[in-house]
Amino acid sequence: MASKPSPGSADQAINDGWYTELSPMWPGQGLSLKVKEILYRGKSDFQDVCVFESESMGTVLLLDGVIQATDRDEFSYQEMIAHIPMCALERPAKKVLVVGGGDGGVLRELARYPDVEEIHMAEIDKMVPDVSKQYFPEMAVGFSDPRVTLHICDGIKYVEDSPEHSYDLIVVDSSDPVGPAEVLFEKPFFEALHRAVRPGGIVCTQAESLWLHLDIIKALAGMCKEVFAGGSVSYATTTIPTYPSGQIGMLVCAKARTEQGEGGSAPLDPRIPRQAEPGPLPQLGVPELKYYSHEVHTAAFVLPVFAKKGLEGCLTFQ
Ligand code: SPD
C-alpha cells in the first residue's frame, strides 16, 4: 500500500451532536449522522471502539472512528460478501472460515446454509464480538449457531497454521487498510489464504470503493491474480449508504480447480450462481434475505464503464 494514514477515533469524529466520518482514505468528504446517544466507548489493545444511536440509521458501530455497520443497512454488505461466494461454489460449502467480521453479521449469513458443517471465525479483537452481542443482537445472532467456533487470535497466523486445503470458502471481512487490518491486504496473507482454501474453493475479501480506491483495487486484484494463478479474480459491487461513496465491493478469488493450476480445467466463473438462494433461519430468528438474490448476484459483477476501464487487465471476469 503506498500511503499509510493513521487511524482515527470516535473522539475526533463526534462533535456538537454530529458524527462525521473523516479519513485520509476519502479526503475532502465525510458522511455525517446525527447522534442521539453514545452507548459505548472503549479502547482495546487494537483499536478505538464506539457504538452510538443515530437519528436516521439506528445503532452504529465505529472502529477507529470509521463506520463498520449500522442497523439500517448492514444487511447489504454482509449478505453480498457471504452469498456471492457461497452461491458461486460448484458444490455446497461444508467448512468455512471468516477472518475478521467480529460483529457476527457474516456468520449470520453463513448460518443460513444447512449443508455447512463448520464455521470458524478468526477475529483479533475480543471487544468487537463482545460489543456486538450487547448492542447488535440481530447481527451477533450468528454467534449462537452451534456450528460456529470463535477464535480470538491473529487471523494471519490462524490461516498460516491451517492445514492446506482446509476450507471451501474463506471470507475476509476486514476494516479499511489502516491500522490492524492493513496486513490483511498484503501478499503474504493472500499466499496463506490460497494455501488454506481447497482447489476450486473461493477467497472473498472486502475490496473497497470503485469511486475512491481504484488504485487500491487495482493493486489488490493484480496481486491476487498472481497468487491465484490458474484460478480467477473478479470484483463484485454492492450499494450501502453508510460506507464511503455509498458503494463497496469484494474481490472474489477462485483457486484453480486442479493442483496443476494453469493448463488445468477452466477457472471458476463466480458470476454464475450455482447454489440455491438461502432462506431464513427461524430457530435463530434470522429473517428472509433483504438484498441478495441470484439476479443481484449476476448484476453485481457488471462494472460501470470508468471502473471497467480502470481495472482493465486486472480481473479475470468482468
Ligand atoms: N469503510 C469501512 C469498510 C468496512 C468493511 N467491513 C465491515 C465489517 C462488517 N461486518
Automatic annotation (TrEMBL):
One GO CC annotation: cytosol
Top enzyme class: transferase
Catalytic activity: S-adenosyl 3-(methylsulfanyl)propylamine + putrescine = S-methyl-5'-thioadenosine + spermidine + H(+)
Pathway in which this enzyme or protein is active: Alkaloid biosynthesis; nicotine biosynthesis; Amine and polyamine biosynthesis; spermidine biosynthesis; spermidine from putrescine: step 1/1
Key words of the record: Alkaloid metabolism, Transferase
Entry's Gene Ontology molecular function annotations: spermidine synthase activity
Enzyme Commission code(s) on record: 2.5.1.16
UniProt entry tagged with the keyword Transcription regulation: no
UniProt cross-references to InterPro entries, sorted A to Z: PABS, PABS_CS, SAM-dependent_MTases_sf, Spermi_synthase, Spermidine_synt_N, Spermidine_synt_N_sf
Alphabetized Pfam families for the sequence: Spermine_synt_N, Spermine_synth
NCBIfam families the UniProt entry points to: PRK00811.1, speE
UniProt similarity note: Belongs to the spermidine/spermine synthase family.
Protein known as: spermidine synthase
Organism, scientific name: Chlamydomonas reinhardtii
